Amino acid sequence: MPEHRPSSLATTPQVVAIVLFTFIGYLSIGIPLAVLPGYVHNELGFSTVIAGLVISVQYLATLLSRPTASRVIDNLGSKKAVMYGLFGCGLSGVLMLACSFLTHLPWMSLACLFVGRLVLGSAESLVGSGSIGWGIGRVGSQNTAKVISWNGIASYGALAIGAPLGVLMVKQLGLWSMGASIILLGALGLLLAWPKRAAPVVAGVRLPFLRVLGKVFPHGAGLALGSIGFGTIATFITLYYASRDWPDAALTLSLFGASFICARLLFGHLINRIGGFRVAVACLSVETLGLLMLWLAPTPGLALAGAALSGFGFSLVFPALGVEAVNQVSAANRGAAVGAYSLFIDLSLGITGPLVGAVAAGFGFASMFLFAAGAAACGLVLSLYLYRQARRMRQSAHQS
C-alpha cells in the first residue's frame, strides 16, 4: 500500500500534532532532571556516583526496552505504543510521589526513585520512537528528517522547560509536586491521544532486531559519542555550578535546550539538502568547541555560552545520522530502525552518569567536559569516515 503524501504546507501541523506526545513524555522526564541529583546527594546523603546512576538508570531502562518497543510499533501500531508509554509516564509519577513521602527513609526513597526511573525509561522508548513512527506514517517517509527534527524539538524543548519548572515547583510546593504533575501529564496525554487517527501498520518482512541493529550500528555509534556531552550537562551541571558557588544552574539546561531548538528550526532543512553526514560533521565540530568552553570557563557567563554552543552543535546530530540510519532498511522495519538507532543514545546516556561521575570524583568537575569534548571529537571523526564511505559507494554504483 503506497504511503499517503500530503503537501509540504500540510505536513508541519500534522507532525506537530503527533510530536506533542513526545513533548508531554519528555516534560515528565525534564521536571525531576535538575532536582534529583541534588536530592539524592544532599538530602538522602548518597555519593555523586549514585546521584548520577539515579539519572542514568532511566536511560538504561530505555535501552533495554527498545527491542520490545520496536516490536509494539511495527506489529501493533505506533499509536498504541505512544499510549502505553504515556500510561508508563503516569505510573512513574505515582512512584515519584511515594518517594517524596519517604525522605526520612533514604534507602526506601532511593528504591522508589530507581523503580520509577526504570518505568519512565521504558515509557520513553515507547513514546519517543512511537511518535516518530506515527508521524512518518501520517506524512510519508520523504518527511523523515522533518519528523525526527520536530520530535527532537519537542523532547529537548520539554527538557528545557521542565528542568527549571521542576526546581520552581519543589521550591514553592515541595518534592511531592513533581510526582503529582507527572501523573497529571500522563493522564492529559492519554486523553489527547485517544481520539487521534492511527497510522497504518506497514506490511512486509520483519527483520530480526539484531540484524537491524547491525545495519545502523555505525550511525548509532556516532550518535552515542555525540550524546555524552548532553548527558554530562543534564546530569551534573547542577553539582558543577554548586562546586563553584555559581547561581542559576537550571538556566544552563534551558539555554542548552533553547539553542538546540533554534538550530533545528534554522538549519533542519539542510539534512535533505546537503545530506545527513555533512550536517553531522559540522554539528559535532560545534559541540566539541562548546564542551571545551565549559571545561575552561572561569565565569558562569562563559559556562552558559559553552552550554548554548553545545546545544546548538548537538541539535542536528540525531536527525542527521538518523536519516542515514533509517534509509538502511525497508518501511516495514522502520520502527525497528528508529528503535535500534535510538538505543545508542540510551546506551550513551546510561553509562554517562556513573562514568562521568567517576571522572568528576577523580579529577574534579571541570574535567567532565574535557572528557565529553573528546568523545564528541571521536564522533566527528567517525561521521567523516562514514561520509567518505557513503560517497565511495555512490561513486562505485554510478560507475557500474
Automatic annotation (TrEMBL):
GO CC annotation terms, alphabetical: plasma membrane
Bilayer topology: Multi-pass membrane protein
Domain Major facilitator superfamily (MFS) profile intervals: 14-391
Keyword Transcription (UniProt): no
UniProt entry keywords in alphabetical sequence: Cell inner membrane, Cell membrane, Membrane, Transmembrane, Transmembrane helix, Transport
PANTHER family referenced in this protein's UniProt entry, alphabetically: MAJOR FACILITATOR SUPERFAMILY MFS_1, RESISTANCE PROTEIN MDTM, PUTATIVE-RELATED-RELATED
KW Iron-sulfur (keyword) present: no
Superkingdom of origin: Bacteria
Listed transmembrane segments: 15-40, 46-64, 84-108, 148-169, 175-195, 216-243, 249-267, 279-297, 303-326, 338-363, 369-387
Name the record gives this protein: Uncharacterized MFS-type transporter K7K07_12100
UniProt GO molecular function: transmembrane transporter activity
Matches recorded under HAMAP family: MFS_YhhS (MF_01118)
Locations listed in the record: Cell inner membrane; Cell membrane
Homology family: Belongs to the major facilitator superfamily. YhhS family.
